[in-house]
Amino acid sequence: MRLMPHPATEDIELTEVLRALADPVRLEIVVRLAVSGEMTCGVAGDDLGVHKSTASHHYRTLREAGVVHTKQVGRLKYMSLRRDDLDSRFPGLLDSVLNATLP
Hints:
alpha+beta, four-stranded antiparallel sheet, 6 helices, 4 strands
């Protein structure tokens, strides 16, 4: 298992989290992770309507902002929300965004 570089919890910045969540495609990825839990990048990117390289850019943006945690197992990359880290840094932010997004 190979871990990708992620910001430490105390280094997650509100402006970067909000910038990452402002894009509709990235927001959809976050919603999918919130509903389904950990998933591979391939599954998370199904039916997003973007090319694989564009999806990879979105995954990287979410990871670098501290919104998701990504690990590589073999050839697969798994993503999950950093819910605990985000809740400790910005209490209620993720829940507010998800409640405004989910039907």
